[in-house]
Design goal:
Number of strands of chain B: 0
Number of strands of chain A: 7
Largest sheet of chain A: 5 strands, mixed, barrel
Shape of chain B: globular
Structural class of chain B: mainly alpha
Number of helices of chain B: 9
Oligomer: heterodimer
Order of helices and strands of chain B: HHHHHHHHH
Radius of gyration of chain A: 31 Å
Structural class of chain A: alpha+beta
Largest sheet of chain B: none
Order of helices and strands of chain A: HHHHHHEEEEEEEH
Shape of chain A: rod-shaped
Strand order of the largest sheet of chain A: 2-3-4-7-6
Distance between the termini of chain A: 83 Å
């Protein structure tokens, strides 16, 4: 048997099968799987948007409104990042952020990145209080395995806070206490951090 | 005019049957011929021979689907013209000439045995095609019966060219296995 014989044998194909193709030749079928291309493109777009969102959510600075409502989303995100701490710490409420939002607003939206004023961090620094004053305290930076930035372990910093700072689980700050501080770093003075929230280590650990 | 009426004209030996056939099917038949011969003159000759073959075969034949019947005639005539043309070309060589002479020692291409063998093969291929998916069958028939290009086949079957190629590749392999199983020597 050779190829020619096969081509000759095709002469015996049933009429209905030939006619079926003949109809297609006259009235071509629309591309059956064209929709798959659109699905693939749509999937890529969704992936790109989602991926981009996750990237900026985790790495890039987030813009926070400078008005009194601005802190909420960022604080929610911070709460998500802290996992268990979310259950123990009550983060600044949107409507009350004006109370303690001044300092935070000053450094807001600048997670891990510098701004004109300094940098703002979602992760708390774990500190050992060494000296307590009226509106500030000196503390030593402890190792806490957190994503602490701008501070070195063992470094002594001055923590300043205003009347609006939230203090959780602590009645009075005392020398020898270990606390977690959510803070911003003053660009002008790297040994000084500005606290917008101070929490007892019991609440965090 | 409807196919039944055209067939009736053939059966009544009315010469207008050829004119009606020409009006309705000339382009269709020409395309089949041209796919095989790739030559305008030969294709036109093939189509004209088809009209004559139709005139001579109806009666006794009374095709259910006139287009398919005429298409089969054109296809067979075109393949014959193609082989004849190539044979003439080959005759220029002594090697080809000697092959032609030796062909008589084995079997005649047009022997009844050969025709029967081809018919059995055709029926086997027919049964094989019934086992295929619609896409695979249409692509196979489009490519090897109508001898359309893969690109054209893919286009009118509504699939990509690469998919058509894949289908053809798989179908050829399946056909080989099927024919082996049916006892044909490959």
């Amino acid at each position: 048997m050779n190829q020619e014989q096969i081509l000759d044998a095709l002469q015996f194909i049933d009429d209905d099968m030939i006619e079926c193709v003949n109809v297609l030749r006259r009235y071509p079928e629309r591309h059956k799987y064209l929709w798959l291309n659109y699905v693939a493109v749509a999937a890529c777009v969704v992936l790109a948007i989602f991926g981009g969102f996750k990237y900026f959510d985790g790495n890039a600075p987030m813009q926070e409104n400078s008005n009194s409502n601005g802190g909420t989303n960022q604080m929610d995100d911070a709460a998500d990042m802290f996992g268990d701490a979310e259950n123990k710490l009550e983060y600044a409420d949107q409507n009350t952020s004006g109370d303690n939002g001044n300092l935070r607003d000053e450094f807001a939206g600048n997670t891990g990145s510098s701004t004109q004023n300094g940098s703002f961090h979602y992760s708390p620094a774990y500190l050992l209080i060494t000296e307590v004053n009226n509106n500030d305290f000196k503390a030593k930076v402890l190792d806490d395995d957190e994503k602490r930035k701008d501070l070195e372990i063992g470094q002594t910093v001055t923590v300043v806070y205003d009347k609006n700072v939230k203090i959780r689980g602590i009645e009075t700050l005392k020398t020898g206490d270990k606390v977690y501080v959510y803070y911003g770093v003053d660009k002008e003075n790297s040994t000084q951090i500005i606290a917008y929230e101070i929490a007892s280590e019991d609440l965090i650990s | 005019m409807q196919d039944e009426k055209i067939v009736e004209l053939y059966w009544n030996r009315d010469e207008s049957a050829i004119r009606e056939t020409q009006e309705k099917y000339e382009n269709y038949l020409y395309k089949i011929a041209y796919n095989i011969l790739s030559d305008k003159e030969d294709s036109s000759e093939s189509v004209n021979d088809t009209y004559l073959a139709a005139w001579n075969s109806m009666p006794p034949h009374k095709p259910n689907v006139l287009s398919t019947y005429l298409g089969k005639l054109t296809r067979r005539i075109s393949i014959d013209i193609f082989r004849k043309r190539n044979r003439i070309k080959r005759q220029a060589s002594e090697y080809a000439l000697s092959l032609n002479e030796l062909q008589g020692c084995i079997s005649d291409d047009n022997s009844p045995e050969k025709d029967y063998e081809t018919q059995v093969l055709g029926e086997t291929i027919n049964a094989f095609l019934r086992t295929l998916s619609d896409d695979a069958r249409n692509v196979f028939i489009g490519r090897y019966y109508f001898l359309d290009s893969v690109k054209d086949v893919a286009k009118y079957c509504g699939i990509s060219e690469s998919k058509a190629k894949t289908l053809l590749f798989r179908t050829r392999n399946s056909l080989r296995e099927y024919l082996k199983k049916e006892g044909f020597e490959i």
